[in-house]
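User: Hey, my collaborator sent me this sequence without any context and asked if I could get a structure. I don't really work with proteins. Can you help?
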Amino acid sequence: MADHLDPALIRDLTEAKAALARHGIVIIRSIETELEPALVAEAKNSIASSPSKLAKLKDDDLDRLMADVRKASIGAALDLKKLYIRLLAKLGTDYIGDLVKELDGIDQLFKWERVAQAAGPVSKKLEEEGFGEIVLSGPRAVSDNFAVELGDKWPQSFSRFRSLADLAAKVLEEQEKEELAAKAKKGMRKG
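Assistant: No problem. I've predicted the 3D structure and written it out in structure-token form, which is a compact way to encode the shape of the chain:
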């Protein structure tokens, strides 16, 4: 890639990729440390909002339910973290044309709607015991920092990286077409 692109474009693309990776890592760290407690807190609210059902639970049953809720919360956060790590790893490819094809999918998965799906396994555990499902109201339900990273910094950084990656892919595609045309022309002269 470096042989065919303008050094300024390479520099800008590298800086944009690094910024995007930094914001992605902050999002992953927030998921790792803040999503599970947010899910457990919402589960406790769901349980507390049904005092009659809560009163029917024995202490051992409540302890088991909370252990199951914590386990489901940790599993959901871990699964999301692993997904995001795989997506960020794709940014490391040197094949810009392949990366550009994957950017729409990556951007769609770094959205609140995908993060909110982590509440599903916890809701399932609660519903099995007769309690209501949980819904995280938005990124601020995880933390203010998470909301800023996911809602503001990631989209801006992604947009910048996307435009530079699209430009680099277009330049490389045009250069490849020119090289193929030159080879074809050279082959016609020899034949």
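In plain terms: The two ends are 32 Å apart (CA to CA). You can pass these tokens on to your collaborator as they are.
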